[in-house]
Amino acid sequence: MYFLKRLAFLAPLLLVISFLAFVLVRIAPGGPFDRERAPASPEIERHLKTKYHLDEPLLKQYARYLGGLLRGDFGPSLKYRDHTVNNIIAQGLPVSLTLGMLAFGFAMGVGLPLGFITAARRGRWPDYAGSLVAVLAVCIPGFVVAPLLVMLFSVKWRLLPVALWESPWHAILPTVALGLFFSGKIARLMREGMLNTMQLEFITTARAKGLSETAVLLRHAVRLAILPVVSYSGPLLADLLTGSFVIENIFQLPGIGVFLVNGSMNRDYPMVVGLAILYAALLVVLNLAVDLAYVLLDPRVKYE
Amino acid sequence: MNRATPARGKTPRAAFSFWLLLLAGFCLLPASCARREPPANITIINGAEPESLDPAIITGQADSRVVQGLFAGLMRLDPRTARPVPDLAERWEVSPDGLIYTFHLRPNLLWSTGEPIRADDLVYSWIRVLNPLTACDYAGQLFYLKNGEAFNAGKIKDPALVGVHALDPLTVLVELEHPAAFFPDLCAFPTLTVVPRRTIEEYGDLWLMARPLPSSGPFELAAWRLNDKIRLKKNPRYWDAANTQSEIIDFLPIGSANAALNLYTHGQADIVWDKELVPTELLDALLRRPDFHRFNYLGTYFIRFNVTKKPFNDPRVRQALALAVDRGRLVQKITRAGELPATHLVPEGTANYTAPAGLGHDPERARQLLTAAGYPGGRGFPRFEYMFNAAAGGSSKIHENIAIELQQMWRDELGLQMDLRQLEWKVYLSAQSHLDYELSRSSWIGDYNDAQTFLGMFTSNDGNNRTGWKNPRYDALLQRANYEPDLKKRAQIFQQAEALLVGDEAPIVPLFFYVGLNYFDTNKIQGIYQNILDQHPLNAIRKISNR
């Protein structure tokens, strides 16, 4: 029921966010139709504004927008005038979602074992080697890793495609480039979590019961050790899922990250507000999922 | 134990769920990857994603390249000369005073969906451009029509009063406000192409989402995925379909110069024809390759003065600053693509015109002028700002570098202190149109091959003026030129106007003329001929099969 209450907060939250985004993006100087080449007469500019209701008072524009929102219509894009925001999100979101999930899987798949091993073998060479890899992964940003990967795997060795999103092979380099940073973070978090958990009493009990070290660590310690990682994954997943602008730009992927950044620069009001709402909704839902995972993983945690 | 043993498998389950996520990702992958499609004959990297494919809305060149594949007009451009040649019109007559054009359409013209294309389709398309409700940025191209401007401003409500009429299904009569030697060039402009009335009336603003989309040009729209690909396939019903050289052309909207170059060198693109898509760091090396081509382009890079702000209201100050600029240094050190230094606004090679020389590089005279204006050696001259737009998303810092060079030149030669003011694109545009600047970086690309498209900007009330400079003599000269049917006399009038603009008054300082860059292998791709407009009709391009 706690979760239902949390979900009930979603609607007013999205309303506030939509209003804030609506107002903020209009405060910035410059409008969606400002160009280097001025239209032939001021009439044309006036007509453009009238067509998209930009000459109406702010609250009236917002009420109009809200009406559309309640019907599930995010409005037309002011930059890509043959498309609606819904249409653009529908085309771009699956790509960003796929990339995000793959990167998340990669980050977990590399980070968790790495963290586990460095904790289990603490003080010995696997710890030093693994920790070094993790720190490097965190320190080197995505926009350095991506071109390096392209240079090695695409240009030099010709193993993988250089850009675009046309086959599963095209997904490999973007996934690694996007996921590497997070895998390092997850490795560090996992290592911390494991080291803390291994101090707890029930681990000593399990050892005293005669269980093998593997059983102790894998079956008992990991469950609690993984909790910091789980809390981190909520916001992480939202960030990944809604598109990494840098990676999408380097690999020219048809996701939605590019629309948020370019939308702001183009003053594409409906696009920016629509994507802000999308991000917010995803963030809330994923945070909720994280809390749910907490309940499943840690028997000490209960919600009213 | 007072707590139940954690159920078996919960820990591995948590860990495995992440692997499940990975698997799920792979399952989603085929759904979001491109469907299996036959490969295109030609893949072109066009520049940024088009804002629209509606001929009435587009303003960018990348957009116009695709639109010209889809929609045809009365004229089109010859691939070799970029001069207008008949397209939907097979011939035309002009009245002796140059005011009445009668175009005769070819018989049996068809939309790609089979309906006939008739004269009233053309009239509809042009009236649509002028209709204030369409809010067409480039409606000005049709202000040459009688009552065109008035209809667009809402002063006239009846479209029948506008100077374009269908006399019969195959004849279009055009009445102009004043003679325009370049009117046939305008008829090849994408804004003036024929659009499908029925589809627009049925679908409204989203008519480009209709499938099949009726097209009047050499190609049809096969697929359009935003930021992914635009696919055009040959339109067999185009009147000249026999001469359309390729079956399928793909356009890739690439924003990053590095990705464009990589895709090209990996054989995933055949042509890259956007100047922004050449990594500037590699320019020197790239220009030595045989598949990289440079050509003179109909565009000028210049500086605007805000003549309403002191001390730039004094022409002597403006002239002094102009004379102190070493343009050769700018093109050799900063831009490095072989641009021509510019002392006048209208680029070299513009049809029907030879520009007068403007203010060259003469620092001594610059110092004299500055002294005459009351600032000997730069003393007493206020600090001022040069405004330019910030490089966005990895594009080169050319504006900033040019600004730094100018700063140095004006300090060394004239003793002036200039600050740099870098603004985000839209803020920069807004500041410029509100005259909220002192000096501004500027550029202008010509719409058609005639001096009018450059000189017309600086009349007193033109929206593109943005300097605050109002000169009745200049306005009068341009007005006279517009009504002059004789090309030579017209050119002379333009010369007087330009001499006033870049010599006597100097509200602008031209720096250099743009150079266009594109890359493709001339052994494999045929049908592209470099021209000053950088216009390359799609139907002429073909790829020779690999040996």
Give short descriptive properties of this protein:
heterodimer, A: 304 residues, mainly alpha, 74% helix, flat, B: alpha+beta, eleven-stranded mixed sheet, disordered N terminus
Give the structure's gist in a few sentences:
The complex is a heterodimer of chains A (304) and B (547). By secondary structure, chain A is an all-alpha fold. Chain A has helices spanning 2-8, 10-27, 42-51, 58-70, 85-120, 125-139, 142-156, 168-197, 201-208, 213-225, 227-241, 245-251, 257-266, 269-297.
Q: What does this 3D model show about the protein?
A:
The complex is a heterodimer of chains A (304) and B (547). Chain A is built from 14 helices and no strands. Chain A has helices at residues 2-8, 10-27, 42-51, 58-70, 85-120, 125-139, 142-156, 168-197, 201-208, 213-225, 227-241, 245-251, 257-266, 269-297. Chain A starts with a helix and ends in a 7-residue tail after the last helix. With 547 residues, chain B is of the alpha+beta class. Chain B has helices at 10-32, 61-70, 119-130, 148-153, 183-187, 197-203, 257-265, 283-287, 315-323, 327-335, 363-372, 398-414, 425-433, 452-455, 472-483, 487-505; strands spanning 42-47, 75-77, 84-86, 89-94, 100-105, 164-168, 171-175, 219-225, 229-234, 248-253, 271-272, 292-305, 340-341, 384-389, 418-423, 439-445, 508-520, 525-526, 542-543. In chain B, α12 links the parallel β14 and β15. Chain B is globular and about 75 Å long. The chains are: A mainly alpha (304), B alpha+beta (547). At the A-B interface, α3, α5, α7, α8 and α10 of A face α1, α4, α7 and α13 of B.
